[in-house]
Amino acid sequence: MGNQNKYMQTQKRSNPNQQQLHKGHRERLRERFLLEGLDNFEDHQVLELLLFQAIPRLDTNPVAHRLIQRFGSLSAVLEADPRDLAAVEGVGTNAAAFIALIPQVTRYYFLDRIKHTRNPLNTFDAAHKYLVPLMAGRSEEVFYVLCLDSQLRILYPALISEGTVKDAFVHPRHVLEAAVRHKAASVILAHNHPAGTVRPSNHDHGITRRLVQALGGIDIKVVDHVIVAGDQFYSFAREGKLPVYEAAG
Q1: Mind listing the pLDDT tens digit for each residue in 79-104?
Q2: Considering the entire predicted model, what is its pTM?
Q3: Separation of alpha carbons 94 and 103, rounded Å
Q4: Which helix (H) or strand (E) holds 160?
């Protein structure tokens, strides 16, 4: 809050007409958004519009520019650690928390919309539409087991592991427990590569083999293992790399 208080003191010493000018700018930007949407907005203008909600009395234009300069892009600002956001002059803890909320609300919105349609994940495109929002805005690696019913509809997206940007630690026992608990007829395995290529690593191939065998042993089929990196999507099944369950002889 120190940075924001200091910034507010500077604003108070500025031209007495400045606050009215800022008020007019806010109203014009809001009106433009209501009429046009965000398609023709610059990155810093999108941030300004967001910051209006968390910083009610300051000129948010220079704050927005500082954020873009500090983090490099609008998406990087939205995905930044709230502590780093709060350290930028003029931001403070309240605005930092509000900015950090945006990608999580976006992810929640898309998942909620998909969840209520109850569409089966019976095509690669359907899986893509479900999984990309599920992974959106995550800076850490996460591993999910999508528990499916007999018609490949989502019963529950079970979060198995949250790791660093380099790795997520997955215990086969936890995967089996989730699949049984949610009465899965089959599953889709899914994880993300937050800062790398969508191509699977040797570790990814290894964990896929182990999980196909473990789940097959209790008659739960692995339909696919999907890796997401941004909006890119790798499917073991589509690429012909999904192992086949081999029953013990």
Answers
A1: 889 999 999 999 999 999 999 999 88
A2: 0.65
A3: 16
A4: strand 154-162
